Amino acid sequence: MTKKITVAVIALLFSQFYFSQEKPQKETKEKEIEGVVITKTKKAVEQKADRTIFDFSEQESLNTGSAMEGIKKLPGLVATDIAGMMYQGKMLAVYLNGRPLNISSNDLTSFLEGMPANSIERIEVITQPGAEFPASSGGAIMNIITNKNANKYLTATYSGNYAFTNEEKFRSRTNNSLSLNARNKYFGWQLRVGQSYRESEMNSNQDNLVLSNTDRIARGTFAKAGLTFDLGADKLLLNYDVYNNNNDNLTLSDGSYLLSDKVLNKYTALDAAKTNSLRQEAVISYQKRFDDKNKKLDFQAGYTRSNNDFYQDNIYNNSTFYGNQSYGRVLDNTSLMQVSNFKVDFSQPVKILDEGKVSFGGLYENQIFDTESKGITNLEYQRNTASTYLEFQAKLKKFDFTLGTRAENYDISGKTRFNDTNGILQEEDLIPFNKFKLFPNASIQYNLMNQVYLALNYNKKITLPSISALNPNNNTFTGPNSTITGNPYLQPTIYDNFEIKLSAFDYAFIGYNVSSIDNQVAQLLSRKGDVIENKQVNIPNMRIHNFNVGMPIPFMIFTKPFGEIMKMNFNPDKINFLYVYAGYVKHEIKEIDPKGMWVINLMAQVVLPSEIKMTANYNVLSKKAGYYYFESEKPFNQKFDLTFTKKFLNDKLTLSVYGNDLFNTQVTQLHSRPLEGESVFLYNKTDTRNFGFSVNYKIPTKNKLAKEDANILKQNNPNDSNGGVVPPAQ
Questions:
Q1: CA 140 – CA 108 distance, rounded (Å)
Q2: Coil, helix or strand at residue 667
């Protein structure tokens, strides 16, 4: 065997040991410590047949700064302001604690920038959603699980973060949060409150027609409260979450355009924009548990209300033809979204082949979305969805099988209003979508050996157009050279997803997936004369091909004999390693035939003297790569981040010092490839290079047994595995 092959095999085998949990104590010691605190090492990344799980709670390189900054560091995940989020070639529907957020694009970016990364326990990227998930989950799901604790008595944790940028001028960013948890023999409660403040700058060039500089201030506050009541083995969970974002933008722009008499009119304008959004969510859950811990019955009812107000004031517009004047309020938009739902899920073991399980349930959801522009209601949107599912899981020797289907009935209708070319208000009905559809899913997994398996997956899914894409007021800025609008006529997207993946020891994997897609929603940027049009459209049919591979490489394989490595009992916090992720994504669109793109992520951990841990992340997407109706001109999302972490006071205090985008290379430079009109060059550069520090302090309490980690208390009741106040992912 050659040296290269030996190194590869050792790296693969090593991941089983490096990423495994610590060995249990001897039986006699287990009896001696029964009933006290038991801790175990969390896995940073965990690969399962249908999902990849990223732990945020103990990775300082991920949980400093905002949630968006942490998410952008995940290997294989692409997050852009232009086209949303994609993982291993699949567009992501974003869930929070098992429930869809129902927001995307600019609203999603603001939401995640206002959420501190240290409020996240873990993120599950579900690449193969089964029948239990709504068929509208689309190609894949990113489920953000916020912190929840299984504590008794009282614990308290403070988390803080400060960062600064110093490009054009000095700007500050802060995050602060406080978590309180308490439990007694009757009930438990949790309260988490926090705030964020973020100053940033963005410079942009739109096809050399408009050059702009935007000074942005984003303020966010949130509160999450929950109660859990133990009713024997059953649980009653009550949750209320509220998020508020209050953002200000000040934009100085220079541009030019031709008047009707061919006179070139140059201008300099100053505009002030303000966004205020309030999102509230209330959920009640009842979890029925049985003597058989694999049997469960869950009921859940929820209500979400989201208000959004946006306006833009032109302070002045100084042009060569019209002189200096002010156009006043040029945009004044509001929206209100209300979502009500009720769901039930049941599962129990059944005798299928060697063993098996059956799951079934149902969901009813009503969504109402209304928008206004300067007092005129220009969109009335309503959706009713009724669904049910049935799924079987079975095992035969080394084979695992899943077969299921979800039946969904959609009733989508509404009206849109707009001014025609003569300024007369017109009203039209939206294109209705009244259909009953079946969404099957199937998977076969063959266990080659312990923790090594080969999986084949298929599922059919649907994605309903996002609220921001439908919103005719989806404007972030308006000027003489640009128009930005939503499209209330967008149709749902249908996916047929196929995947084959070989996984080993949770971390190493190699896979290929292809999605055949009808009516994919995409952003289309085109130019007609001196006006740039930015709109949402449906791509009639396309395919997305994705090949990806991930591999951990411990540095010790270059310095220690393999026999010695095999005998070692590793602690992940003490090991130096490099994790390599590489992916190739090809968007197959017949009209433009875009080029494929390479996605590279390198993450290294090095333990320095005095137990200081250094974590380095490097991300890059290749240039000249096709992304729907865009092609990059420079490497996209290219950045290098560095974090140094040290624990003090018996691990109660964690201090991190970090720098993001140290070489200031993260930039968006691309051109559009529209089907009609002229191509548009687009350049955006924000002050992504920032430096800062974060503090996490577990405040001492009188309770000596209280711990902050989520799964540290030994459960007396085998059915009581959740123990927290936030509903688990469904």
A1: 16
A2: coil
Q: In this structure, which amino acid lies at residue 259? A: L
| Owner of token pair 């060569």 | 320
Beta strands in 56-209 (DSSP E): 77-80, 84-87, 90-96, 99-100, 120-126, 140-146, 153-166, 170-183, 187-206
**Beta pairing class for 355-373 and 328-350:** antiparallel
Q: Which amino acid is at 87?
A: Y
Summarised one tens digit per residue, pLDDT across range 498-509 is: 999 998 876 688
Banded pLDDT at 80 (limits 50, 70, 90): low
Q: Which of 695, 601, 598, 615 is nearest to 659 (CA)?
A: 615
E strands within 633-728?
A: 636-648, 653-660, 668-672, 681-686, 690-699
Q: Which of 51, 54, 42 is nearest to 123 (CA)?
A: 54
- Asked if 466 and 522 touch (Cβ cutoff 8 Å), the reply is no
Dist. CA 93–CA 104, nearest whole Å:
9
Distances (CA, A) of 333 to 214, 269, 338, 374, 727: 20, 21, 17, 6, 34
Displacement of CA 133 from its chain's centroid (Å): 17
Q: Which helix (H) or strand (E) holds 498?
A: strand 493-504
Burial of 650 (0-12, 13-18, 19+ CB in 10 A): exposed
Who wins on pLDDT, 517 or 424?
Answer: 517
Question: For the segment 404-421, what is each residue's pLDDT rounded down to a tens digit?
Answer: 999 999 999 999 887 777
**3 state SS of 385:** strand
Nearest to 674 by CA among 537, 494, 502, 496: 537
Q: What average pLDDT does range 130-157 have in this prediction? A: 68
**Range picked from 6-15, 62-71, 515-524 for highest mean pLDDT:** 515-524
Task: Report the alpha-carbon distance of residue 98 to residue 143 in Å, rounded.
Answer: 6
**Rounded Cα gap, residues 548 and 499, in angstroms:** 11
473 — pLDDT class (breaks 50, 70, 90): confident
Residue 566: per-residue pLDDT: 60
User: CB 366: neighbour CB atoms within 10 A?
Assistant: 15
Identify the H or E element spanning 371. Answer: strand 355-373
Cα separation, 463 vs 136, in Å, equals: 5
- pLDDT at residue 314 in the model: 94
* pLDDT > 60? residue 707: no
| Tokens describing residue 469 | 């894409």
3-state secondary structure of 89: coil
How far is it, in rounded angstroms, from Cα 381 to Cα 470?
9
Report the C-alpha gap between 529 and 678 in whole angstroms: 9
The mean-pLDDT minimum among 80-84, 268-272, 494-498, 617-621 falls in: 80-84
For the segment 306-352, what is each residue's pLDDT rounded down to a tens digit?
A: 999 999 999 999 999 889 999 999 999 999 999 999 999 999 999 99
Q: What is the pLDDT of residues 377-412, one digit of tens each?
A: 988 999 999 999 999 999 999 999 999 999 999 999
From residue 119, how far is each of 164, 182, 523 by CA, in Å? 21, 18, 31
Residues 6 or more apart whose Cβ sits within 8 Å of residue 631 = 594, 595, 624, 625, 670, 671, 673
Question: How many CB atoms are closer than 10 A to CB 184?
Answer: 11
Helix (H, G, I), strand (E, B) or coil at 107: helix
The pTM (predicted TM-score) of the whole model is 0.75
In this structure, are residues 499 and 457 in contact, taking their beta carbons and an 8 Å threshold? yes
Contact 686, 173 (CB under 8 A): no
pLDDT in tens, 633-656: 999 889 999 999 998 988 788 899
- Residue 373 sits at the vertex; the CA angle it makes with 369 and 377, to the nearest 5 degrees, is 50
Q: In 3-state terms, what secondary structure has residue 490?
A: coil
Torsion sign across C-alpha atoms 105, 107, 113, 115 = negative
Residue 648 to residue 660: CA distance in whole angstroms: 24
Check pLDDT > 80 for residue 45: no
Q: Are 693 and 675 in contact (CB under 8 A)?
A: no
